[in-house]
Fold these 4 entries.
Entry 1:
Amino acid sequence: MKKFNFKSFKVRLRQVKAEELNDRLLLINLYVTQALVLLAAVVIMLFQRPDLLQMFSIEPGLTIVLWGALFAGAVLAVDLLVTNWVPSEVTDDGGINQMLFGNRPLWHIALLSLVVAFCEELLFRGAIQAAWGPYWTSILFAAIHIRYLQHWLMTGLVFSISYGLGWIYIQTGTLWTPILAHFLIDFIMGCILRYRRES
């Protein structure tokens, strides 16, 4: 039996820079990634068998909107402070967010924000947090946002946002609250990137 020569098998992985991506490739990457996130959430939940009626309950009513909007507002306020007080190289994501939102029409910013919020919250809060709790879930959430890992401040902010999303899910008992908060954060930040005037 012939043995496989692992030395001749080379995987060439390298960091892709934002300027190497075109718009179409960036969108395909985003939508495929979110489809995989959604698939992972569904597979995990098939084993966990959560109470979906409870998870997606709208019984808290306005509490969902209140918690979601207040949390999003707090995150956006902190982001505004960071943007104004921290050097831009510390908050740099390689230009991905600017490429993603910079030239999109408003409806597409809303669609992207909704898809990302729903898929990521279903996986992280709906599936993973049930098994790992908010702390370890937030570590994983920060780790998958790999473009921020080179800067401790941004990694800490992503971890804190994730932990806060997990906390408001626990407080309200419905996944709609972190989905709404995540959507508002992404949508408003996307609109800022799209419509801000350069100074």
Entry 2:
Amino acid sequence: MTTPAATIASPVVSGTTALPPSSSGSTADATNALASQQIAGNFQSFLQLLTTQLQNQNPLDPLDTNQFTQQLVEFAGVQQQLNTNSQLMTLISLQQTAQSTQALTFVGKTAVVKGDTAALTNSSATWDLNVPTNSTLNISIANSSGQTVFTGKYAANAGNNQPFTWNGQGNDGTKWPDGQYKLTATATDGSGNSVGVTTEVQGVVSSVDLTQSPPLLTIAGQTYTVNQIQSITN
């Protein structure tokens, strides 16, 4: 479907979505370290109390064997908790290293991600639409300030990865500057029922921020996590 301002062409690829909240790796490390110190402190206190109890027990009335065995079991449990915590921290560290290594391999490649925000560059911005059934599409495009700059209605056939390209021209003929633009797509079928349409965008991974956990990839001025990538096209 074609208008002077936008087109939906044959399928090409899929991808973009809003960035979910990310946690800081340094904060997680600090929390784990504090927890380990607390467990270690409790362990040392327990050991000191047990040793003192054995040293000062009444020879004529020694500690009950069952009670002593129970305390030894508790002692072993604390030690096991310390070992488990240390091993978990090692696994987390290995996972973070693997995520960083994987993220670095994406730099310079074209990635497809779920989302609705694309970059208008040289009067061209493209989104990929996934339309589950033949529908009438209502397209609305807004700039980074939330101002609607273009609307349109199109007939669309069912299919995934259908490119929708906008040339940066508003309904009133205004040529909008390069920047980030958000597309909203709604649809209805022949019976007037709502149809769920999803959008994706693609772009070159220009950089990776390894200071975040998980690492953040920059694509067309937006940041995404590795698990938001749907595919790599080259």
Entry 3:
Amino acid sequence: MTGVARLIRASLCLATGSALLARHLGRCATVWVARGRRHDLTGWKAALGCWLRLAGIALLLYGLWWLVRRAPALMCLLAGIWMTASWRSGRPPAEDVDGADEAAVSEAAPTLDREAVRTLLLTLMGGGSGVHLRTVLAYLQQQPSTAALTAGWKVADLRARLVALKVPVDRGVKVGGVPTWGVRRRDLQAPSPATAQETSPEASTAA
């Protein structure tokens, strides 16, 4: 991989991780505020806890802003913490996808054969329990043999093709502690729908 490609990959990793981190923090804040509602009360009293928690978040943000205004150098520390967290959220799985089998990639994408795609996904998983679709797409778009085919694809495009091949995808696959669209190893190791349909009549006849 060239230096420019590595730089682009790192930039995409930071951008993706930052977006994921922001959404995750937003969801956590939403859930935390919602839990402040009292179900044993009605009217404004029931929602008082939510308002107090919102005020606590606003006060925390104001305090952070005040500290940065007092000590601007603190922004460098905060930016470093955010970038580190973004990198950890947006990077591919711990295993090195650069060392993945390029032959599996070349075979999988152009032919869109289910077994070839399955082999590719397992290769990208390495020793992990799953792989994010954005990781698969980023890898395909970096390979000379599949870059033209997947140019302009979004995660939704890849997901649609996997669904058409009856490859199980799920939006809650966790890799590096971040849940998003991906494929789990245990789902790939299960019998395919086609195989299940073929063996079903035999099983019923035997019964």
Entry 4:
Amino acid sequence: MPRTRTRAQTASTRGADPVGNLPLADRAYQAILKGLFDRTIPAGAELSQADLMGKLGLTAQPLRDALLRLEAEGLVTIHARSCIRFVKADLELSRATYQFRSLIERAGARIFAETGDAAEIEAMMEAHRALIAGIEADGLSAEQNLALNELENRFHGALLGALRNPLIETTARRLKNYVTLVRLDRLITAPLALRTLREHLDVLAACARRDADGAEAALAVHFQQALQRLLGMA
């Protein structure tokens, strides 16, 4: 992360940023998340506000505002006049994250199976088949890994979108930060990518049949297997 302060940061601690069109508190929030995800801030670290200001090039008030938001989301614990403790990506957090995702998305899988657009379902199935064929033929390249991430977002986004619930969508966006955090040490290989894609296909095939029970059951299996892969058990 750049250490230099922008003119907007110098001029105001709360005003809008004319370059990024984001309030400075939002920029600070994004900077802290980026620091967590690129390991500038180690998971589980205990740092002072001065440490964070130095690491991320932030000013005091936007940092405080961002930390309060992150505390509400469970990513940090603020100890007054002591330190800021960042959440540790441990076994407990991994299990809790995947359990919560499963609870939300299983309901979405049922609705998507019953009401999802048939053309959209078929298009996603075809995209999964094409990526599977590519990985089987050439292995998992950087380009295919990017395509895998895009398909994961598309697949899970469709299940969440089927719920048509803005509160769940907001919660899911926050939950994505936990997912990114617990996956930091995860090594993606071709066999693991293929398992993920085939499990997605099982869910989508049930949706194509309008089999809500089958879609929910297949998604439950997917999350169980995904957690085991994350923990190195599958």
